[in-house]
Amino acid sequence: MAAAARPCHADGRGRRRGGRGRARARRAGGAADPRRGARRAAGAAGAARGRADRRPRGRPVSWTALLLLAAAAWAMKAAGPLVLGGRTLRPDVEAALGLVPVALLGALILVQTVDGGERLVLDARVPALGVAALLVWRRAPFLVVVLVAAATAATLRAIA
């Protein structure tokens, strides 16, 4: 106890040891509340986990690389009319190309729904996606699809 009260600076300022809760407990003659330290440690661990999740994995992409990739994508898109000239595509090729965006969007939605990083996640979003697909198939308005799918996911999360 005497070592803690001794100033460690020449001007008489003491070094702070622990938080206010410990200082109050020492003045009162008791021990610090052990639950307080446990809560603080759990909060710090949770905050560290949150920071670790936000860190980029792998190497960051530079602005130069990003701009070059954007320019390459634009150039490929602009090359289509130049390569085709004034010719038209065959009807079967045109029909197949018309389905590519739909299939790509569906694949992206499915991956975003069930991807949990390194594992497959089957939670309330999966049935909500099924309800949304059913409503789209029945040609419901977009707002109805979104609201009913959100209500389905919310209801299933409330039940679970």
TrEMBL record:
<feature type="compositionally biased region" description="Basic residues">
    <location>
        <begin position="14"/>
        <end position="27"/>
    </location>
</feature>
<protein>
    <submittedName>
        <fullName>DNA-binding protein</fullName>
    </submittedName>
</protein>
<feature type="compositionally biased region" description="Low complexity">
    <location>
        <begin position="40"/>
        <end position="49"/>
    </location>
</feature>
<dbReference type="Pfam" id="PF05437">
    <property type="entry name" value="AzlD"/>
</dbReference>
<feature type="transmembrane region" description="Helical">
    <location>
        <begin position="63"/>
        <end position="84"/>
    </location>
</feature>
<keyword id="KW-0238">DNA-binding</keyword>
<dbReference type="GO" id="GO:0003677">
    <property type="term" value="F:DNA binding"/>
</dbReference>
<dbReference type="InterPro" id="IPR008407">
    <property type="entry name" value="Brnchd-chn_aa_trnsp_AzlD"/>
</dbReference>
<keyword id="KW-0812">Transmembrane</keyword>
<keyword id="KW-0472">Membrane</keyword>
<keyword id="KW-1133">Transmembrane helix</keyword>
<feature type="transmembrane region" description="Helical">
    <location>
        <begin position="140"/>
        <end position="159"/>
    </location>
</feature>
<feature type="transmembrane region" description="Helical">
    <location>
        <begin position="96"/>
        <end position="114"/>
    </location>
</feature>
<feature type="region of interest" description="Disordered">
    <location>
        <begin position="1"/>
        <end position="57"/>
    </location>
</feature>
